[in-house]
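Query form — protein GTP-binding protein

QUESTION: What is the three-dimensional structure of this chain?
INPUT:
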Amino acid sequence: MDIIVSTIMLLYGLLTGQGDAHGDAKQLAVAYLNASAGETIVQPNAPIVTGEEPPGGGGMMPGQAKQDPQPDTPPIKGIYVTAHSAGGSRMESLLKLVDDTELNSMVIDLKDDNGYITYPTTTPELLEIGTAKKYISDINGLMDTLKQHEIYPIARIVVFKDTVLAVKRPELSFLQPDGTIWKNGRGESFVNPYRQEVWEYNVALAKEATKLGFKEIQFDYVRFPEGFENRADTLTFNKTEQSRVDAVAGFVKYAREQLEPLGVRVSVDIFGYAASVPAAEGIGQDFVKISNDVHVISPMIYPSHYSTGWFNQKTPDRSPYETIKGAMDDTHEKLQNTGELKPIIRPWIQDFTASWLGKGNYVKYGIAEVEAQIKALQDSNVTEYLLWNAGNKYTAGVKYE
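ANSWER: The C-alpha cells for GTP-binding protein are given below.
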C-alpha cells in the first residue's frame, strides 16, 4: 500500500529519498530525452519549454459526467490479497475468511509495488512495455474461483511507482544529473505522470483485467514521488505546462473515460490526510479533483499514520475510533460541495500492528481495534471499507458489520 510512516506522511512527505543510483540505468537516457520530439525537456536549472499536453484534463468536463456502471452493487467490504497469496496456498484460508464472514470482496495485485504484472499475460501491447511474472500462474482459474465464492473482484494496479518500468525505459522516469535513474530511500523508482505512454500502458492493463472478469480497477500510487517538489529542479524529465496536480488528475480522468464504458468501476487510493489539508501539490494529489473522476475513493486512514495531535489524540494509533471518526468527518467536509460527482467513500482501515512507532505510541491491533474502526465508519454513515495487512494475516473473530 502507498505508505509513508506517521509524521513524515503528515508533513507532506518531505522524505529526501536519495538512494544510490540504479546500476541498470543507461547513461544515454539523458541524450534520448533531449532528442524526444515535441515534448518538454526539463533539465537542472533549465527553463521549461511547453510541449504537447497529454489527453484528459484536471477534472470533469461538460458532457462527460461520470456514471456508476454498477449502481446496484451491494456495499463492498474487502481485504487486500497479494499476488503471492492469490496464486499460492494462503488463498484457501482467505477464501474461508470471506465465506464465513460479512466480507464480500478481495483487492488483488495485478501490477505490484515493484511494477511487475503478476500473471503470465501474453498480450504484446503489455509485454512491449511491461514485465510479467507467474505469481498467479492460472489467472483464469483464480477468476473462476472468485466467481464460485461470489467474491467481488478488484484489481489493484500500482501506477507511477514502477521500478521495473523505470529500469526498462529510463526515459519514462526521472534522471539524475549523471543520467542514472533516481531512487528514493527505499530503493524504489517512479515513472513520470506526464508521459502518455505510462497512462496508456496502465489503462491497457486495466482493460485486460476487465476482460478477465474484474469488476473494479483500483489504481494506487497515483502521484509523483514523495517530496518531489524538493528535487524536481535537479532531475531531468519530460514535462508539459500542466501543474503536477493537473497531470495526475488528467490520468485519472483519462482512465475513467476509457474504462467506464466497459462496465468497470474505477477507484483510487489516496493518502488519508489528503482530506484534512489543502491539495498536496508537491506530489500532485488533489483530493477533490481525483474524487470527481472516480466511482470510488479509498483514503488510507490507518490510525498508525497520524502523528500526535491529529483529531485531538495524543497517540492516534491507540485511539482507533477517534482517529477514524475524525478522518471521516474531514472527508465528508472535503467532498460536501461535489454534488452528483461525489464518489463512494470506501476507506482502507488498519489490521496490523505498527510496532515501528515505538513503545507507548502503538497498541497491538486485534478484534477490539478493528471493530472500533468499523464502528467509527458506521457512525459516519460509511458502509464500505477495505482491510489492509501487508502479509494478508487478518484478525480472526472480527464482526464485519
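ADDITIONAL NOTE: The longest helix spans residues 196-212.
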